[in-house]
Design brief:
4-stranded antiparallel β-sheet, about 0% helix, 7-stranded mixed β-sheet, about 120 residues, mainly beta
């Protein structure tokens, strides 16, 4: 079984913070690039952030730069997305996804997906 399970979503006020977790099972994150994507109702799924298998390279979509941080804990086989200074436009279902070694802007290149976790930013 190859699984990714997201957690940590919820309701937060603008300016607040959440930390999302992506826990992997059935494979090691040591050889996997992990991307975070989000999808709001009626909109395309959007790449948010990604980290290469080594952790030595990360990227972020412009709208979250300076606010979100992707990281990994190999001992726990888990990748995190720390989200600070949240805005209403960050509201979406957030998904993590895995592919071999290197990040990609193209979602179809990611082989494994989690079920998603809802993030709602509202007063």
């Amino acid at each position: 079984q190859l699984q990714l399970v997201e957690s940590g979503g919820g309701l937060v006020q603008p300016g607040g913070s959440l930390r999302l977790s992506c826990a992997a099972s059935g494979f090691s994150l040591d050889s996997a690039a992990i991307g975070w994507f989000r999808q709001a109702p009626g909109k395309e799924r959007e790449g948010v952030s990604c980290t290469s298998s080594s952790g030595g390279w990360t990227n972020y979509v412009d709208s979250v730069k300076g606010r979100f941080t992707i990281s990994r804990d190999n001992a726990k086989n888990t990748v995190y997305l720390q989200m600070n200074s949240l805005k209403p436009e960050d509201t979406a279902i957030y998904y993590c996804a895995a592919r071999e070694h290197y990040c990609s802007r193209e979602r179809y290149r990611f082989n494994s997906w989690g079920q998603g976790t809802q993030v709602t930013v509202s007063s």
